[in-house]
């Protein structure tokens, strides 16, 4: 059944994309409960984070437990620039990307020569260091109380101050992130990243410098996480260190594992599932976390590679077209 669905999807990919976009655009008009639209907006933020993490954990093969740190760096950058210096939303969003990118370079250059569990531990330590700074540098970050009064997003005088407006803004950011990473992975850089992940020794033999590709993937991922943080700060109007803890890093990693490593659509599906499930199970209260955990275990047991893990729509389409061509050729000969 699953193979039939993915085959139909691969053969009619453009139609599926158009229908999906229509549904996403119509969603806030069809839903009367504004709280659901707010949850969908939060799902969009996590979708950006999941796609950006998938760039290094899925496509590059680096397990990172510190992605929330870049998210936090971007959020605090936007919060400080907007509240203390009065910068507009567009500039704070760009600054969030740039500052997170710089932190990605500072972390990546000395550590990406490491591999496996050692690199994972370093990213975990980095996340805790950033959280500690956010908590204890009270004169800058406000400490545990955080930063309040962050203005809502505003672009050329248009204020995004309703759930529907915020939803469409994060939808645009999600689409841009998806397109950027897709184009990146279809480029020479993307092929190099995949080659390093699959066999870095063979890649080096072919003249591909693995450290160069690792750092490039790492900083792009960090910049996208910083953008998500900048948007999140303006969206929530309040941030604190609790929002960017190690727990958030594991949540984002869980999203891409469940959705499928190396699959951007899977990242979005994983983010939506892990954000929506707790809300769907809210009426059960006492049993909510138990059912939530059990469902995750079932998904992992049934699909160890993730919902869309190892699903390559381009290859499926080529395979089906080749199969149909062979069948037609056989009919002609008959």
From TrEMBL:
Cellular component, GO, one term: plasma membrane
Domain of life: Bacteria
Membrane spanning residue stretches: 62-81, 87-109, 166-185, 215-235, 255-278, 290-309
Keyword annotations of the record: Cell membrane, Membrane, Transmembrane, Transmembrane helix
InterPro entries, A to Z: ABC_transp_permease, LivM-like
GO molecular function ontology, one term from the record: branched-chain amino acid transmembrane transporter activity
Membrane topology classification: Multi-pass membrane protein
Annotated Pfam families: BPD_transp_2 (PF02653)
Localisation per UniProt entry: Cell membrane
Family matches, as PANTHER family: HIGH-AFFINITY BRANCHED-CHAIN AMINO ACID TRANSPORT PROTEIN BRAE, HIGH-AFFINITY BRANCHED-CHAIN AMINO ACID TRANSPORT SYSTEM PERMEASE
Name the UniProt record assigns to this protein: Branched-chain amino acid ABC transporter permease
Naturally occurring in which organism (per UniProt): Fusibacillus kribbianus
């Amino acid at each position: 059944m699953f193979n039939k669905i993915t085959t139909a999807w691969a053969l009619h990919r453009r139609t599926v994309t158009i229908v999906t976009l229509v549904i996403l655009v119509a969603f806030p008009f069809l839903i009367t409960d504004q709280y659901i639209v707010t949850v969908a907006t939060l799902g969009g933020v996590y979708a950006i984070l999941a796609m950006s993490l998938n760039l290094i954990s899925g496509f590059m093969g680096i397990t990172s437990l510190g992605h929330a740190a870049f998210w936090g760096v971007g959020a605090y950058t936007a919060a400080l620039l907007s509240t203390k210096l009065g910068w507009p939303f567009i500039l704070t969003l760009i600054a969030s990307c740039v500052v997170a990118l710089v932190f990605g370079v500072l972390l990546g250059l000395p550590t990406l020569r490491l591999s496996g569990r050692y690199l994972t531990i370093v990213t975990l330590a980095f996340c805790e260091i950033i959280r500690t700074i956010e908590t204890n540098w009270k004169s800058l970050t406000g400490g545990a109380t955080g930063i309040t009064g962050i203005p809502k997003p505003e672009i050329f005088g248009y204020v995004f101050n309703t759930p529907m407006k915020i939803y469409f803004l994060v939808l645009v950011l999600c689409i841009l992130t998806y397109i950027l990473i897709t184009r990146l992975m279809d480029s020479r850089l993307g092929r190099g990243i995949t080659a390093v992940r699959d066999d870095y020794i063979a890649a080096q033999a072919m003249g591909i410098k693995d450290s160069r590709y690792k750092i490039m993937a790492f900083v792009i991922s960090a910049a996208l996480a910083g953008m998500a943080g900048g948007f999140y700060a303006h969206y929530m109007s309040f941030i604190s260190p609790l929002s960017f803890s190690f727990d958030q890093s594991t949540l984002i990693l869980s999203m891409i594992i469940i959705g499928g490593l190396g699959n951007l659509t899977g990242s979005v599906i994983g983010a939506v599932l892990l954000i929506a499930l707790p809300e769907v199970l809210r009426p059960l209260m006492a049993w909510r976390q138990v059912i939530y955990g059990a469902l995750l275990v079932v998904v992992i047991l049934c699909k160890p590679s993730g919902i869309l893990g190892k699903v390559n729509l381009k290859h499926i389409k080529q395979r089906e077209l080749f199969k149909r061509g062979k069948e037609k050729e056989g009919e002609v000969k008959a």
